[in-house]
Every structure is written in C-alpha cells, then in structure tokens.
Protein 1
Amino acid sequence: MGETHRYHVVAWWASGRTGIAKSDSAPNAIQFTAPPEFQGLEGRWTPEDLLLCALASCFTSTFHAIAGYARFEYTDLEAEVEGVVSKVDSGYSFSEIILRPSLTIPRKKERERAVELLQKAKALCLVSRALATAQKFETKVEVSDGFIGRLIADDKTNSDRTLR
C-alpha cells in the first residue's frame, strides 16, 4: 500500500440543541446543530451543511492542484453544492447531491481544456470518492462511576416520578 494520511475529528453534544466539533488540523472548534426542520437552531452549521462544504472545498482544492500541475490559468472558481434530503422507508437520506462548479478563464480557446480539468477534479476529489466508501462503525459505551441521580416517587401511587 502506498502513502497514507490520517485525519481526526471529535464531535460532542455540548448542551441543549448544539454540539461542538474539533479537528486536529484546525485551531478553532465549530458549533453545529441539527437542521431547523429537525428542531435545530437557526444560524448554525448543520451536519448536512458540513458534508456539502466538505465536498465543495475538496473539489475547489483538487481543481486548484490539478490546474497548477497542468499549468492551467484561471481567474476564479466557485463550487456551489446543493443537497436534497428525502424521507425514505428507513428514515431520511440524501437523495441527490448536485455539484455546480463555475470557472472563469482568461481565454476562450481554453474552454475545452477547462471542462476536462473540471471533470478530472470531480473524479479525483477525495470527499466525492469517500461518499461511496463503506464506513467502519466502532462503538464505545462507558458507564460513569459517579452518582447521576435517583428516581423518586413523589406520591404513594408512583404515578409522578422525578429524577433528583
């Protein structure tokens, strides 16, 4: 096997309706929430946003590297990514992800080459390729040793229970 690289991200639920994610490669943590459609907060990144952001940023980074290697000159690249989430029998799932790169080049005669390099970037984008990769799922469940709380019956009928 050839050269390998490892990347590491940790996410934890902070409180209420938000979580925090931290990467070994970035100094700042980010806050995230579920989408507002699923009782998340407005104005925060969602896992769905982060997935689409990963695809857009990977595509633009890959194109930049390919263009540099090919000595291809361009003046601007924007990658818009749209995801469609639909309800299926087993729950919600992305039913479609659309990548819309928009490339600005200085010379019309380079248009065909530009399209070829865009297609090559799509084929080589690591995140795009990862979306089709099977995932390993390694769970860990811990039980705390400390006192968390106790269930108390507030009346003799045990109908109203409170955690204290």
Protein 2
Amino acid sequence: MIGYYILDDKKQIVPCSDFSVLSKYLGMSVGRVSHNGVEVSTVFMAMEHGRDNLGRPILFETMVFGGPHDGFQQRYCTWQEAEAGHESMLWVLTEERDRKLDELGI
C-alpha cells in the first residue's frame, strides 16, 4: 500500500491520510539551483516511492535538468539526506565545470 506523508516543524516525516492537508506539501522544495542552462531540483514528493533497504519510505528526489547529467535522479528517505544529496550534486557539477575550465586553460 502506498503511504502519504507530510513534514512536521522539524522536517521529520509524518504519515497523513488527509488529502486537504497533504496537497500543500506536494513538491515542497528542499533546494533548487539554476545556472547556465542546468537546473538541480530537490523536492519532497509526499507520496511514498518505494522503500530503502532499511524499510524506510522514499519521499525525496533530486533531479538534474539540462547539461551532461540531464535526467539524473537520486532519491532519499529524509530531509537531511535530501539536503546532502542536493549539495553533493551541486559539488559534482561544480567540480566538472572547474576541471573543464582548467583543461581549457581558463
């Protein structure tokens, strides 16, 4: 059975069956950065998208739109994991950009 969740004031997940409450959480942004035609977006999905190997619901997702990583997707179980994953993808993209600039001597 698919589970639905909201976030409490400490950004911890809480099961929810009230769709009038749930709707305000759908697509809530954890982080969003756009630069030079590439966007990295991390959101709270509110609807369970499977479970991890510890049985925790997967509720957050980072996606990359544009550039060489277009379509990259990573999912997480907690707000903290989602924040870290978002920052990690930004770091990867920055490191690749810096390496290419170095190769070009810029």
Protein 3
Amino acid sequence: MEVRNHIVLFLDILGYSSLITSCKDSHAENRYLDKIHSIMSNLSEYIEKRNVAIDQKNNNLHLSRFKSLLFSDNILFFAPYEDETDMQNLYMNLLYGLSAFLIQYTKEDIFFRGGIAKGNLFYDEKLHFVFGSGLVKAYSLESKVAKYPRIVIDKELNPSPILVGIDKDEEETWYLDYLSLGHSLICYQNEPKQNYEHFLICLEEQKCAISRAYQKYKENESVFPKYQWLAKYHNEFCVRYKLNDYIVEIDL
C-alpha cells in the first residue's frame, strides 16, 4: 500500500449550496437531484467512452487508466502516470474530453469550477477510498484559486500558451480555454459543416444560460462576479471568432 504519481482533476458545481438551500421543499430538491445526478453521470460516462475509443485506436496512451469518483456535487478523475511524457499525454487528453463535454452538456443553471494537478495518490477501489497530496492540490486549486467557473491548471504541469485551449490571466493563473479547444475538436472532425452547426447551437445555449445567471445573481455581491467573468470569457471568444450574434448582451 503506497501512493503513486497521478494526474488528478477535481470538479465542483458552482453555487451548489445556494441551489440546494433555495429549494423550498423536497420536490424542488428532487428536481435538482435528478439534474445534477444526470450531468455528473453523463460526464463520467462521456470521458470513459472517449478514453476507450481512443485506446482502441492508439494502444500507447492507455487512457482507460482514468477512474472517476462522484460524491455530492463533486467529481474526481485520476490516473497514475509513469514519466513526464506519459503525464503530459494524460492530462492534455483529459482536458480535450472535458472541453468537448463542457460545450455540449445542457447547462441550464449548472456550471463547473475545478482544478487539475499532479501529485501523489492512493486509491482503494473496494472501499472507494482516496488519499494523497494530489487530491489536496487539485481541491485547493478548485476551492481557492479558480474563483470563477473555470478549470485551473497546476503550474507544475508546465502548461504552454502555444497549445490551443490553454490560457492564463493577468495574475498568471493558467486555466482551460474550453471554448477554443472544444471549437477545434468539434468543428474540424468529420462532417465539419454539420459539426459547426452543432457547435453554434451549443454556443447559443451557453449564451442563454449565462444571461439568465447574470440577471438572477445581479444583486448578489458574492456570486455576481463569477458570472461577470464567465460572460466576459464567452464574449471574448465570440469576438475572436467573429460570432457576434452569440455575444451576451450585458454591460461589463
């Protein structure tokens, strides 16, 4: 029994406590239960199926090493790695799959925040017991650094701005630019025209979801800045790709 080097991704649903405490009765709480359970299980299944499909084409990556654990509004993805190259392949492929999912899932009022890191981890599959500094690092990135609906990337993963989908803010915090990465992954596959139309449908859905959240939390000083950031990120992407019809119409 010992810890090993792992890639660890910790994801949390933004504003989960507010969502639950706003429920006036068990019926309302059950509606959120169904919604969150569906999103979390879909995410876990999406990543798993994608990893299996890639492994069938490329036996060298072994992405099926990734495991996931779901608890409450959190989901954890983790996989052991052997060396630097293996580590880079694992974490980038996980971000690829996550980006495609983040664009396509039905958002309504559910957004994610998270952190991805490397570090020591031990997992007992029988007990579903996870232990190690890697988990602490990923959780700390999500809870203390991310702040907004974004996935923060540990500097020790050596993120590079050369790669599509990797960006950093004015505080030198690296994060996943899932719109740019998802755009590349979805739109440049087979049947690009059909995929591009699908991407635009997803972008319109995100626009509407952000607009609703922006109005809903406008008077909430602690929550509102998170959706201000998300609207700004969404709009900057739309301007960059000349998708002005999908800009969220708000004052930033």
Protein 4
Amino acid sequence: MAKNNQFPMHVSPVGTASWPWLNKPDTRFDEDGIYHVKLVMTKEESGKLGAVINPLMNGGKHNPLKPEKDDQGNNTGNMVCQFKMKSVVNSRKGSFTQSPVLLDKEGQRIEATIGAGSKIKIAYQAVPFDQGGGGVTLRLRKVRVLDMVEYHDPSGDNIEWGDEFTNSVVNDSKDAPEDVDGEDF
C-alpha cells in the first residue's frame, strides 16, 4: 500500500457544495463514518480536476468526476465531483481518527456547519485503486469556504406550531361517523 505522502496535494476550482458532510461524518452506510461532499462546477472549471484524474484512471470504471443530472436524469451542463475521507482509518500499525480541516476565506478554522450551496475549494489527493473495476478516489483533506451557507437542522425542538394545536382534541372512535355506504376511501 502506498503511503499517504506519496500522493501530491491538489486544489480544486471553486464550486458549489452539494450534500456536504464536512462537520461530522455520515454513518448511514459506514458505522465508522465518512466525511464527503459533492462539488458542482461548470464543465470548463472541471477541466483542472480532469487533468489530475484522467491520467490515473488506467482503464478503471470509477471516475469521481461526472456530468450533473437533474431530477429527470437529464444533463444540466455542469459537472459534479465526489470527495471523501474515512473518519476512522485502520492500518497494520493501529487505527486513528481524522477529519477535514475547515477554513474560512481568511484561512481561519471554522466550527459552523457548512451547508449545501456554500462556495468552497477543496485540497485533496487523487488516489488510484484497482478493486471493484478500478478507478480514482479523491481524498478530502482541507476545505476553504469562500461563501458560507450555514446548515440549520429543520428537526429542531424550537418549532412554533401555533395556537390551533394547543387545545385540540383527538376524535374518539365512538364519536366518528359511521360508514353509511360501506365504501372504503
């Protein structure tokens, strides 16, 4: 296995963050968690990424740079690129945890939760692999936020439902009207 420092560091063009999991790892499909983000950019801007990725593909089928599709599956004209980082790394020498370094446009560390729509640049390493048909993975290292859209959790406890819900009573089944025609809804 190649050492981490054998892969040079690259910097992406500015793009728009889509589905960012940068402040805490996503544990939906990996219990240890993975930090990841999709970076959306124009086709012209993606050329810099393609110049790094394409020479490493070596016939592999997993390319992290793909055309962006809309909800109907049509190309939007933009490109989207996947960057990721394992939260827990297990090696022969033991395991360790890691997280991406998150910086504001002045280069200061930030704690705010980066939301979709933020304009970001990503420092990454392009790493080729042979398993599962081969390809390239882009290892996320640092993120610089140029225009922050902060994520706010919609499931917060401070939801104001309004007065109409404070004195409502649930209908008891004995008070419910009978089904007169025998039809189901």
